[in-house]
Amino acid sequence: VPVPLRGFAQRVEDLVREFKNAAGDKVMIERLDPKPDSEIEDSAQLDGIEPQQLASGEQFYLGIAVSQLDRKQAIPAISPQRERLLEYDLVRAIARVGSAERPKIGLMAGLPVLGEKFNPFTRQSSEPWVLANELKRDFDVQEVPLMAKEIDKDLNVLLVIHPREVPPQTEYALDQFVMRGGKLTAFVDPYAYFDQGPQMPGVPPQPSSSTLPTLFKAWGVSMDPGKVVSDVVFGSGGGARYTPTVLSLNRTAFNRDDIVTTQIETLLYAFGGAFEIKSSELKVLELVQSSPNAMLVDNANATKSGDEATR
User: What is the pLDDT of residues 243-275, one digit of tens each?
Assistant: First the structure.
């Protein structure tokens, strides 16, 4: 076994033992060595563990199967490339087998995240977003209406995606949800290019925008719903098609220390907004940032390109 792989396998085992130390009697660990053509190799494959190959062509197994009663989850092949996410993968596997009931999360959205049946207004239907399908793998997703006056007491986590035109009563309900200890993740957008409003005769449709004006002000955060980021370092295209408001971000724009963004190499950030933090009491963790050669421009200039946009 190559030395780097042996060291990695040892780190995997050390992490598993950390889980054991934290959990005590609640976790039992079995370490199996699936030699070729053995019953243990058959057992590993039945558990969903997949063989991996060395450069020499020889096969080896490095995987984890987590089970409780008749529930089973496998991490089929653990690789060094995913080492930073291994703790997350283990926690997710244990959480999935640890309870027959999946945790519930709320989803409040101004866009058809969960898909849309035939809409007579737009004359089209749509499939659920990839995000929705990923969420449904781990959670029971409960839809919460944009005009909600209160948030269900059963919900402890709420995703709010593009809350356009939410009334004050909904903002109040969100505030009460956070005050009682709920976890809120809000995605707001000053220029939702793919959510263009109803078409009026003679007037081009305009992208919608969203914010949480009352809550942001109270929490010491601002996001101008009338402006998008323009950045000459990360602008996309060239010549007459150069568009500084469509950002092609590279790894220098990401927080390399946070698990969420550590492995992202590129990201297309089109017509995006920016936050300004006005409270010294907030703990701020930046995941993505623009370059120093950036500014906010009015939404009316968002789609300009070439020399006009550069000026």
Answer: 999 999 999 999 999 988 988 999 999 999 999
